[in-house]
Glutamine synthetase type III (Alkalibaculum sporogenes), 695 residues
Amino acid sequence: MENLTQIFGTNVFSEEVMKQRLPKDTFKRLKRTLDLGEGLSPDVAEVVASTMKDWAVEKGATHYTHWFHPMTGKTAEKHDSFIEPTGDGRVNLEFSGKQLIQGEPDASSFPNGGLRATFEARGYTAWDATSPAFVKDGTLYIPTAFCSYSGEALDKKTPLLRSMQAVSEQAVRILKLFGDKETKKVTSTVGPEQEYFIIDKTLSQQRKDLMFTGRTLFGALPPKGQELDDHYFGSLKDRVSDFMKDLDEELWKLGISSKTKHNEVAPAQHEMAPIFSTTNIATDHNQLVMDTLVKVANRHDLTCLLHEKPFAGINGSGKHNNWSLGTDKMNLLEPGVTPHENAQFLTFLVATIAAVGKYAPLLRLSAASPGNDHRLGANEAPPAIISIFLGEQLTDIINQIKNGALTSSTKQTHMDLGVTTLPKFPKDVTDRNRTSPFAFTGNKFEFRMVGSTMSISGPNIILNTIVADILKDMADKLEKAEDFKSSLSKIIEELVQENFNVIFDGDGYDPSWVDEAEKRGLPNIKTSVEAIEIFNKPEYVALFEKFGVFTKGEVCARQEIMFEEYAKTINIEALASIQIAKKEILPAVLEYVSSVAESITNIKSVVSDADVSAQIDIVVKINNLYAEASKALAVLEKDLKKVQEIKEVGEQAKAYKFEVFEAMQALREPCDALEELVAEDFWPYPSYGDLLFRV
Ligand code: ADP
Ligand code: MG
C-alpha cells in the first residue's frame, strides 16, 4: 500500500481540492454556502461543476451520478456519462452547473408512501454541498437530496439536514444566553460503529436463505458458539485481515476515516468504526461503508452479512450511534474545566436526558426494523426499553439536582450552577455499561439500539429534533427570565425531576429490569410493528412540524413505508422458508430416513434376529419430526395466503409479525431438530458450524 497520508481522501473533491482549483472568489462564495447555508448562485455552480468534472476525469471518471438516499434506507444512483457530441462524430466532456445542482431521476419506482401520487410523478435531486463529492469506480458521485416537485422529502437526507438545522438554531440560542455571541452554528456529530459478519462465499452461496434474506432461516446450533469469549478482540484470521486491509484502503481513498477494526463477540463477527464527523457526512459515509464492506468481501471470496441477526442463538449485529453536539471550538457534551463551562455542559446534558425521557417511543421507533426485532430485548442487545446510563459520578450529581441542590439554599448539599466544579469524567472502559441502550460515554451519548443494516439517518433525525425541542423550551423561558442563573437552575431541576425515571445504571439484560421499568412507567415497545404505529401520534406530528423536519404527510408516508417494508421482508422470509423446507429439507430427510429403513431390512435379511431397535428408534424420531414439519409447513402456507390478502398496511404488518413470523418459527423448530439427526452428507446446505468457523 502507498503511504496512508497520501492515499487518504485522494478520491474526494474536498475543501482542500476546491481551494486549490477554484478561483479565489468562487471558493469564497461556495464556502459561505457550506458554512452558513447561503444559497448557491448559478455562476458559482457553473465554475464548480466544470472544475469538479476536470478533477474527476483526471481520476478516471467517465460518468457522474446524483447519489441519493431513498426511503428504502439504501442508496440509489443512475450514471450518466460526461459525453456531449460535437456534431462531427466526436465528443466533448461536459458537466454544467445545472447538472451539478439538480437532477431529475425517473424515480417512480422508489417507495413514496403515497406522497407522489397526488403530486408530480417525478422527483428531483438537489446537490448537498455540505457532503463532498467523490469518485468511485469511474463515476463522480454527487451527494444529493431527493424531493418531490412540491417540496416533500422523498429521502433520508432532507429531513436529516432539516433536523441538523433545527438543533443548531436552538443550541445557538442557548449559547448566546451563556454569553457566546459569536457562534452561528452548532453541529450534531456522529461516529457510528458498524458490526458485521464475514463468512466464506462458496459456503454462503449454498444457502438460499442467506441469498434471499441475508439471514439464516434454519440452522441448528454448532457445538461451539461464543461461550469461550475467545473471539472478542482475538487475533484476526489471515483471510479476514487481508480483507480488512483492502477495506480500509478503499475507505481511506473515499476520505472515510476508518479508525478501529476488531473481532466482535460472536465467531465470524467483526466491527469497524470511523472517527466521528457531522451527522450528514457520517450518514453518507456509513452507507458507503456498508456498500464497500459487501463489495470488498466479495473480491476476497468472502460474504459480508450486514443483517441484524444472521444466526439464531449467536449474537446479532448493531450499530452504535455515538452522538454529540459541537461548535467549531468545543464539544458541548464535554464537561468543562471552569464552572461556567460546567453549567453549560449540564444544560446540554440535561436537555438530552429530558429529550430522551420525553420522547423515548420516538427513539425506539427509530431503531425499528424487521431485522432488529431479533435483537432488541433478546438478551444481547439492549432491551426495547429506553433508559439512560450516566455512570456513577454524573448520576450522583443528577441525584443531587433532583433533590433540590440547585435551588434550595437551605440544603447542605447546595450546588451553585455557576460555581460548582465538576470532575473530569474518566472515559474509563471499566465504567462502561454495555447493556444500556443510551449511555453517556465521557463526552458523547452512545445510542446502541440501531440495527446493523439500518441507515443512521432515522435515529439522528429523531435525536436532533427531540433535543432541539427541549432546548427551544429552555431558550424560550430563559430569554424572558430576569435572572438567568436562577431560572436556569430551576429549569434544570424541573427537567431532572420530570425525567429522572429514565436514568438506570443497572443491568439492562436482567429480567427484573422489565418489571422495574414498568413500575417506573417507562414504555416497553417490544416489537417494530408496535413502534411504527406510534409515528403519527398527534404530539409527534406537532413536534416534527414545529421544527419543519417532517410535514404530517411526510410522517404518514414514512410510516406506511416502514409497515410495507416490514410486511415485504417477512413475506420474502416466509416464501424462502417454504421453498427451503419443501424442496431441500423434507426431501433430504426422506432420503435419509429411507436409507435407514432400508438398512434395517438389509440387516434383518442377513441376521434375522439382529437387534435393530436403535435404527428403528431413529426412524421413528425422524418420522415424527417429519410429520411435525410437514404440518407446520402447511400452516405457514395457509397463514401466509391469508395475510397476503389483508389490505390495510398496518394491520397486514402486524399479522406478518404475529402470525406468519410465528408460523415460520414453528416450522423452523422441527427442521433444526432434524438437522441434528440426519447424516451430514444428506443435509442440503452448510451447517452453522461450517459458516461460522470455516473462513
Ligand atoms: P468505544 O470505546 O465505544 O469504541 P471511542 O472513543 O473509540 O469509544 O468512540 C467510538 C466512536 O465515537 C468513534 O466513532 C468516535 O469517533 C466517536 N466519537 C468520539 N467523540 C465523538 C463526538 N464528540 N461526537 C460523536 N461521536 C464521537
Ligand atoms: Mg462504543
